[in-house]
Known about the structure:
alpha/beta, single chain, about 150 residues, Rossmann fold, 6 helices
Amino acid sequence: MRADERPLAWCVIELASPTAASLVDELTRQWEPGACYLPGAPWVPVLTAALPPAAVSRILRSATTRVWRGNEGIDAGRVIESIEHGCLPIHVTKAARLPPRLSDAVRALVMTDDSGTIAPPDPDVLRSRLDLVAGAFATGALERELTTISDNR
């Protein structure tokens, strides 16, 4: 299913945390319908109940975007898993935390929230971002750049 034909505008698949819950709250208020899966509790040392991987795959295949917030570098694992499911990965961060030189494909993975809100992207912008990211992924350039960014942290 093409990204623009998916029933969910977004998904958040993260371990339960105040940051993840805040992101879900914001996306629920600002964007079209989405889904979240926040397993675990910060005070429980072992994750006891979790969806099987096939269920997580169904969530990713139903969403146009997978969104997460973080102050660290872009998580290559989340990026690759999302792209493999046809879902645009979006890392929300502060602009000041971005490395100075990023390719257009890596920039397409990032939304900044310096204003304190995350505006829903225009569908045409989402399509062009996904095409750009998928093209860089197909050539291997995206993985190479994400590895370089991670190594330079």
